[in-house]
């Protein structure tokens, strides 16, 4: 099982801070597609992804237990 | 040295972290909440962070600075929660043996924060509110991550 975290506008759109999904073996790109479909969120193509708190490319494969964060363009500072 | 703060940031305490006998200069950057952006009046901001990762990314920025500017010490504290106009959002202190490096390294730190640290601001105006992506959405990440050079070291 994998925990998927949402932040900023994505959290507002999904209505949850996190959800549990079974996505081990899938790539980051596939996870984004699943999330976009299931939760009807737009703008996922501009979101970065972190696996276990480190940025990960679209091709990276998810392992069981990985924590996945969908990170909209940041605006700190 | 790297913190996400839920209360007011004490500027002096950030500066104190980078005091070192080898330093000839300390530069301090204080980011504050601006009232007007392109003529639009902000009432207040709410900052949110993916806190555990944000601290790691601030540490990464510190590591990058120490690799580029020899002898540098870096401390960064970023605020989260509701901030009113003129409140302090971020404090960056950098000490180095010579002043030019302290200025350059401090500028580098704030620019990197705006690229890789998972912190977001929500602007509240008189007529609404919105999470701000990178200003004007001039940057997108079609590959799903920051481009070459934005990743770890």
UniProtKB/TrEMBL annotation, chain A:
<comment type="similarity">
    <text>Belongs to the MoaD family.</text>
</comment>
<dbReference type="GO" id="GO:1990133">
    <property type="term" value="C:molybdopterin adenylyltransferase complex"/>
</dbReference>
<keyword id="KW-0547">Nucleotide-binding</keyword>
<dbReference type="GO" id="GO:0000166">
    <property type="term" value="F:nucleotide binding"/>
</dbReference>
<dbReference type="GO" id="GO:0006777">
    <property type="term" value="P:Mo-molybdopterin cofactor biosynthetic process"/>
</dbReference>
<dbReference type="InterPro" id="IPR012675">
    <property type="entry name" value="Beta-grasp_dom_sf"/>
</dbReference>
<dbReference type="Pfam" id="PF02597">
    <property type="entry name" value="ThiS"/>
</dbReference>
<protein>
    <recommendedName>
        <fullName>Molybdopterin synthase sulfur carrier subunit</fullName>
    </recommendedName>
</protein>
<dbReference type="InterPro" id="IPR016155">
    <property type="entry name" value="Mopterin_synth/thiamin_S_b"/>
</dbReference>
<dbReference type="InterPro" id="IPR044672">
    <property type="entry name" value="MOCS2A"/>
</dbReference>
<dbReference type="InterPro" id="IPR003749">
    <property type="entry name" value="ThiS/MoaD-like"/>
</dbReference>
UniProtKB/TrEMBL annotation, chain B:
<comment type="function">
    <text>Converts molybdopterin precursor Z into molybdopterin. This requires the incorporation of two sulfur atoms into precursor Z to generate a dithiolene group. The sulfur is provided by MoaD.</text>
</comment>
<dbReference type="GO" id="GO:0030366">
    <property type="term" value="F:molybdopterin synthase activity"/>
</dbReference>
<dbReference type="Pfam" id="PF02391">
    <property type="entry name" value="MoaE"/>
</dbReference>
<keyword id="KW-0501">Molybdenum cofactor biosynthesis</keyword>
<dbReference type="GO" id="GO:0006777">
    <property type="term" value="P:Mo-molybdopterin cofactor biosynthetic process"/>
</dbReference>
<comment type="pathway">
    <text>Cofactor biosynthesis; molybdopterin biosynthesis.</text>
</comment>
<dbReference type="InterPro" id="IPR003448">
    <property type="entry name" value="Mopterin_biosynth_MoaE"/>
</dbReference>
<protein>
    <recommendedName>
        <fullName>Molybdopterin synthase catalytic subunit</fullName>
        <ecNumber>2.8.1.12</ecNumber>
    </recommendedName>
</protein>
<keyword id="KW-0808">Transferase</keyword>
<comment type="similarity">
    <text>Belongs to the MoaE family.</text>
</comment>
<dbReference type="InterPro" id="IPR036563">
    <property type="entry name" value="MoaE_sf"/>
</dbReference>
<comment type="subunit">
    <text>Heterotetramer of 2 MoaD subunits and 2 MoaE subunits. Also stable as homodimer. The enzyme changes between these two forms during catalysis.</text>
</comment>
């Amino acid at each position: 099982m994998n925990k998927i975290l949402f932040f900023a506008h994505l959290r507002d759109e999904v209505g949850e801070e996190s959800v549990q999904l079974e996505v081990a073996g899938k790539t980051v790109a596939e996870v984004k597609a699943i999330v976009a479909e299931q939760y009807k969120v737009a703008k996922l193509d501009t979101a970065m992804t972190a696996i276990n708190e480190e940025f990960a490319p679209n091709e990276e494969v998810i392992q069981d237990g990985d924590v996945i964060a969908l990170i909209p363009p940041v605006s700190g500072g | 040295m790297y913190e996400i703060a839920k209360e007011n940031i004490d500027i002096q305490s950030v500066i104190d972290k980078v005091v070192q006998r080898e330093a000839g200069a300390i530069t301090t950057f204080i980011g504050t909440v601006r009232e007007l952006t392109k003529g639009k009046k902000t009432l207040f901001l709410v900052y949110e962070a993916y806190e555990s990762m944000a601290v790691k990314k601030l540490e990464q920025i510190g590591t990058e600075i120490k690799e580029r500017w020899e002898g540098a010490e870096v401390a960064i504290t970023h605020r989260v929660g509701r901030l009113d106009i003129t409140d302090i959002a971020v404090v960056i202190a950098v000490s180095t043996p010579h002043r030019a490096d302290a200025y350059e390294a401090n500028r580098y730190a704030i620019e990197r924060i705006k690229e890789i640290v998972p912190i977001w601001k929500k602007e509240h105006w008189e007529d609404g509110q919105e999470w701000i992506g990178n200003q004007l959405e001039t940057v997108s990440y079609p590959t799903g991550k920051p481009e070459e050079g934005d990743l770890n070291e």
